[in-house]
Amino acid sequence: MGLLRYYLRRFLIIVKSEVLVLPSRMVVCVFFLGLLLLPAVTQDPYLLRILILTNIFAILAASWDLLSGFTGQMNFGHALFFGVGAYTAAILNLHAHLPPWGSIPLGALAAVLAGLIIGIPCLRLKGTYLALTTLAFPIILLGIVFTIPGITGGELGVSGLARLSGSRLSDYYITVVLMLGACTLMWKITDSHTGIIFHAIREDELAVRASGINTTRYKLLAFCLSGFFAGFSGGLYAHFMRIAGPSTLEVSMSFTVVIWAVFGGIVTIYGPVGAVFILFPLLEFLRFWPEYRTLMFAVVILLILLYMPDGLFPWLRDKVETECPRCKIRNRATRKTCRVCAVPLD
Amino acid sequence: MGRAFLEIEDLSKDFGGLRAVNSARLTVNRHEMVGLIGPNGAGKTTLLRLITGILKPDEGFIRFKGKEIVGLKTWDIVNLGIAGTFQNMRPFRRLPIIANVMVSCLCPRAMKRGEWVKKIEAKAMDALEFAGISDMALEKAATLSQGDLKRLEVARAIATEPELLLLDEPFGGLSPAETELMAKSIQRLHQGGRFGRLHSEGPAMIIVEHKLQQLMKIVDRIIVLDFGTIIADGSPQEIVNLPEVIQAYLGQGGV
Ligand SMILES: Nc1ncnc2c1ncn2[C@@H]1O[C@H](COP(=O)(O)OP(=O)(O)OP(=O)(O)O)[C@@H](O)[C@H]1O
Ligand SMILES: [Mg+2]
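^ inputs. structure came back:
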């Protein structure tokens, strides 16, 4: 009993000293808790369906940021990883009767392989050439999909897959936990030593080489990691929708991912995730005005990017937090002095 | 025959008809500090870039500790123990200075040699301390002055703990006082020893510099390059009195 009290006290102290000091951390905690507790308030199947898809796409958007945001390898064919993950999981489930917990990780591994295969020719390319080359890969795969309809189902896709789990509610919890886990993991990667090298590769690849770092290895690592998470989300998508179709490989899919990430703010991980949570439900909501849907969607995105070129979330963060000029620790914007070094803020 | 530390033979490099380095032949011994001078466009930077593998030569050999290094990747050459700085500094602008140096500390060579160093950050800090910019460790590299960027270049290079250090105009853009400081640091580095967690092998050096006065004071030997060709190689006293050196420099408007 006493021990329990002790740990509770420790926990409260950590909450107070680590979480409550920064608005952004509070928002992240509220976001985590809100997602986990939401079903206690409502279990509306339509809402849960939207949120499940949002979770799945959040992983996808974050994985794009991990590759293109951090290492600067602009990938305009991210749908490739998503499609490879989805199709692999679907085919393994349908033909080899693997359950979702087996087919989805294997789909992710197939996407890692895809990452290696497109990563190698992309190593020497930069800028527009890289963008165009990556854009082509999912289109090529789409062509392959259509030539072997016996396995891939052609236009119709692979359908009749096993459900992710028994009920909508458990589907929801599975995707929430996986999304929070995957995004935290990606954020941890970008916050590690490897993340510093990714940053540096985006800034100046030649200088990274001259620092003794094998940039080829790190760029391929970025392609593989990004492919893994994107393929994972593709597998989840296939099993939730119970179909893997050509839409997972379409050009519009690749572009949507880029729009999400740029809207939320690249090189952050949390930006693209937050963006999906705003834009995906918004797009669903705009279904009520089908004639104006795309137009309104485009207007929202243009307005945001016009006023917040770095994306929505970094902009919001700068509004509520300021960086200490001396120790570079972030502080609540309302503070007069830095919480660590007590230097005056203005 | 005693194997030289660095041996360059008949090294040539063309840039579309322009011969930037022409059959260069030189050696550097293990504990030497060599100055490399020559008028603008003589090919000094190109020669250094050939050694670090950033450029591939059209002809010739480069042997480092008896090993042929032409054709190796830049990172492999760095991990063998050759580090260089960029004449037109190339920092990672949006990263803090400490992260700039941490990238070098993360190269396999530095990691292997500093196994007992638990914290890469601390080692990077010692490299900054040595270069004299540790007080700005958390600033973004984009905010640095020219002189501080030069120091950052040096800090990044020494963080890989090289045995051969190639400095491309380390005094460029520095004030006389800063130049003095930098010259002192370079000499200290050349003597070797331990600077906190950073270990200096006492690297051999090739220093490219236009400020001859300061260069003369610290180097043992000077190599003169003109139109890609080595026209003189000798002690600083010999070099300044050679007619062809005076000729090359006067052609460009004097020393
Ligand atoms: N990447 C390149 N492509 C084409 N020409 C080049 C390239 N790099 C250098 N050159 C040319 O090669 C010649 C030698 O250049 P280099 O930079 O080596 O001279 P330098 O001795 O370092 O001159 P400085 O003292 O001005 O730094 C110059 O004429 C230059 O224009
Ligand atoms: Mg030069």
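Residues B 44-45, 87, 168 surround magnesium ion (ligand 2) (CB under 6 Å). The mean pLDDT of chain A is 93.
thumbs up if we can close this ticket
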